[in-house]
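User: Reviewer 2 asked us to show a designed sequence for the structure in our supplementary figure. I'm pasting the structure tokens here. Could you produce the per-position amino acids so we can include them in the response letter?
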């Protein structure tokens, strides 16, 4: 069986900075990529993921599923020889956590009408 060619990936963050590039086996899963992103996330960033589930990976406009492999996510234009594929890494906290935080934030607010009739 011939050696499989490694895929070189880098991850673009919300502010335009990058994590990587790193080389991955085509059999690596998206979940493995997310774990690496969380581990390599710059400490000085205001927004940071707490867990791999907080990261959404986007490639060619599609959100990648955790169970997919790198080879399944490659798009035809990403198959350039020796090319680096850029994926976007977006931090999106889990829905349950976001709802809990929202309830806490809404508690002190009161609806006050500030209309004035002239």
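Assistant: Here is a per-position design you can include in the supplement:
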């Amino acid at each position: 069986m011939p050696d499989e060619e490694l895929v070189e990936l880098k991850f673009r963050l919300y502010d335009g900075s990058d994590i990587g590039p790193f080389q991955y086996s085509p059999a690596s899963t998206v979940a493995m990529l997310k774990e690496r992103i969380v581990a390599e996330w710059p400490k000085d960033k205001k927004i940071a993921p707490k867990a791999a589930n907080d990261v959404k990976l986007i490639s060619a406009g599609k959100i990648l599923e955790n169970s997919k492999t790198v080879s399944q996510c490659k798009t035809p234009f990403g198959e350039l020889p020796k090319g680096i594929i850029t994926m976007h890494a977006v931090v999106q906290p889990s829905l349950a956590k976001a709802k809990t935080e929202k309830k806490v934030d809404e508690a002190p607010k009161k609806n006050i009408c500030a209309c004035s009739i002239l």
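For the response letter, you might also mention the following. The helical segments are 30-40, 70-73, 95-106. The longest strand covers residues 84-91.
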